[in-house]
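Complex record, two chains
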Amino acid sequence: DAGITQSPRYKITETGRQVTLMCHQTWSHSYMFWYRQDLGHGLRLIYYSAAADITDKGEVPDGYVVSRSKTENFPLTLESATRSQTSVYFCASRGTDSNQPQHFGDGTRLSIL
Amino acid sequence: GQQLNQSPQSMFIQEGEDVSMNCTSSSIFNTWLWYKQEPGEGPVLLIALYKAGELTSNGRLTAQFGITRKDSFLNISASIPSDVGIYFCAGRPSGSARQLTFGSGTQLTV
């Protein structure tokens, strides 16, 4: 059972390029999340979505764009990548009940040169 | 945003030893979660806590939801090499539909 999958697992790109990270979940979870993980900061929420066509900013949304046209997919786009966006990105999902725990993908390691 | 203070940042222990780590907040939380992350993987849920005072075990792991609702503890008994990883606490602040706040993690080396 795939659960939640992220692609690509690794990506190297250059400053100024557009990059899209994909996230797909098979649980029909309403909520999906994007985090970035950096040394010393733990996991910081970038954007989240409560349902298809509903998205909200998290703690560090600047420089990122999300969309959710289908419940199972939640792509994250860096429209013009900067070096400060070099990080490991995690997607997560959960059901409707806010007490339900989030389940994470295996991450995308993004390097911006 | 909400701040979670997780300690210690890292631990080096001998196999067989018990381990304790904790998270504290200045705000009240309704939910506490403990995750473990191994290299190259995403965090995996270990224990979820929903009530103040709740004590929950998962094998050799035991976690508690603090009475004040501002802290949580994770204990690992008789550590083994596969316990190596980063342990994260996460909490959901009370009120509205706020999302999870994560601690900065405890790196455990056995």
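Note: Chain B touches chain A at residues 1, 6, 30-31, 33, 35, 40-45, 48, 50, 88, 90, 92, 97, 99-100, 102-105 (CB under 8 Å).
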